[in-house]
Amino acid sequence: MIRSKTEKYTQLIKEEALRLGFMSCGISRAEFLEEEAPRLEGWLRQQMHGDMAYMEHYFDKRLDPRLLVEGARSVISLTLNYFPENVQKDPDSPRISKYAYGKDYHFVIKEKLKHLLEFIREEVGEVGGRAFVDSAPVLDRAWATRAGLGWIGKNSNLITKKVGSFFFIAELIIDLELEYDHPVTTDHCGSCTACLDACPTQAITAPMVVDGSKCISYFTIELKGNLPAEFEGKFDDWMFGCDVCQDVCPWNRFSKPHSEPLFDPHPDLLEMSRADWEDITEDIFRDIFRKSAVKRTKFEGLKRNIEFLKKD
Predict the structure, then answer these.
(1) Helix or strand or coil: residue 239?
(2) Alpha-carbon distance 58 to 68, whole Å?
(3) Which of 51, 64, 134, 247 is catalytic?
(4) Is the torsion defined by CA of 277, 278, 284, 289 positive or negative?
(5) CA 120 to chain centre
(6) What is the CATH number of domain 5-174?
(7) DSSP assignment, residue 78?
């Protein structure tokens, strides 16, 4: 049976994505995200982005990929597993979100996306497109949902039945017509409220609604200056990011360790005790987090967070 070029290219792209180490790949038509528009507007209007003023920028571009890539036809959504084989050993140690154990994911994923785009151009010819990893105005979870890669859980994370939610999401937006996948039709969270019940700061205000201005990840990474006194004793020992709503999710019992060496942590990171973290020097910080996403908070920020945990 002779396949169409669209079908052929779609299959080749998905096969290459898996070869590059991505966990899954789904494709959706590049168009305006009509359902997301009122949600995003309402979230911003209620100031749930806190001091993250950048979330107010490029409102139209966040909702329409055709404003980001001229002539965009397809949004290729990809996931990459980061669930670690081992976690921090000292149960009393200040904790780091699992996604930040290894090399900064922005660099790791951007390199893979660059190779995927090069592959598409080698197979197809001249194709216009851009790669996006988290830091650009793209609603990655909305596109991944449209592409059938999972459903949005009550903690607002993308979840899959096979592996849970410990994975990154990235996109290639290109001007090539492809075959499109369909959303997962069922919400598999059911009556479970584990994430809402466990959130230390009650940042999950309703199913699929996270008040970013109350989230521990926001406080420990995004917020500059002093941490609010009213949240003393509520950080559950998190000094960078927070995994609570994922750790308690029943679907994450299916998480499997990643196979990306660049996500492996510095040998000393998992061994450090609470005392080690409280006595951390700038030299040790630079050594352990030389290429890590933790550098985003800088040494002073991490020390601020650790000092705040002492008040618990």
Answers:
(1) strand
(2) 10
(3) 134
(4) positive
(5) 25
(6) 3.40.109
(7) E
Both tokens of residue 178? Answer: 């492809």
Are residues 243 and 234 in contact, defined by beta-carbon separation less than 8 angstroms?
A: no
Q: What string of pLDDT tens digits covers the 312 residues of the chain?
A: 457 999 999 999 999 999 999 999 999 999 999 988 888 888 778 877 777 766 777 788 889 999 999 999 999 999 999 999 999 999 999 999 999 999 999 999 999 999 999 999 999 999 999 999 987 789 999 999 999 999 999 999 999 999 999 999 999 999 999 999 999 877 899 999 999 999 999 999 999 999 999 999 999 999 998 999 999 999 999 999 999 999 999 999 999 999 999 999 998 999 999 999 999 999 999 999 999 999 999 999 999 999 999 865
- 64 part of the active site: no
The model's pTM is 0.94
- How many other CB atoms are found less than 10 A from the CB of residue 206? 9
Residue spans in the chain of domains classed CATH 3.40.109: 5-174
In this structure, the dihedral spanned by the alpha carbons of residues 121, 124, 125 and 126, taken in order and rounded to 10 degrees, is: -70
